[in-house]
Amino acid sequence: MRMPAQHRPVAALTAVGAVAVLGLGAGPAATETPKPLRYVALGDSYSAGSGVLPLDPGAPLVCARTSKNYPHLLAASLGAKLTDVTCGGAQTKDFTSSQHPGVPPQFDALKSDTQLVTLTIGGNDQNTFINAVLACGTAGVLSGGKGSPCKDTYGTTFKDRIESTTYPAIKASLQRIKARSPKARVAILGYPWITPAKAVPGCFLKMPLAEGDVPYLRDTQAHLNAAARRAAAATGTTYVDMDAASDAHDACRPVKERWIEPVLFGTNFVPVHPNAAGEAGMAQQAAKALKLS
User: Which of 7, 45, 77, 173 is catalytic?
Assistant: First the structure.
């Protein structure tokens, strides 16, 4: 998406242990030096960690990728060989075509011997969720935070688009990943909560949403995550559920508690995106879902 209670790092595992737990083949003989896990990270800005510093020196500047994103943290805990092609603003179409000049299609990184693949995707497809955030923010400012102007105007429009375009695109992408890297464990992460379940005092100053549109936007995000969950189930992919873990870490929380930075008065240079604690939380949940911790 384009738009710090601290969390313990993901438990460290040796490369041999990681291979055994993942079920990716028998471990090497004791006298041999184990080969590092071959890990490819795909996806959009929530995977790239756009907005968090320092930037990854090996990434195209336009991707705004950080060296503290969850793929880097997960790879470090596993001793894995990471190929990180995550890029801010990525859509499912950027898996098979160039997102920017000089930025190859992300699927070019997938090989027949890839062993682990992670991703977040769907938030930018057709700009549906981005448009929801922008539309609700604009409506919230114009209404002074009262009522539910965004819900009243758009109704089920955003959810309908997610159902008709985003879900099939995610499902097809997961199928293509498995075709390109048939030996790999594949995990798609849900997006951490951006808004609380209902309006809370002081939230409007950080996230200018009308009171009735706070749950409306959360419900729209829940539908997006549900699309990823369903696509995962349909393709034998691991779904990393971020709902419970991120529930008390939305953008309306105090700076030391939130995982997502707000539109106003945030710390990231890209608002409405995970901060370093959020990326660490995503790494931790991915490790749990993959049974690596």
Answer: 45
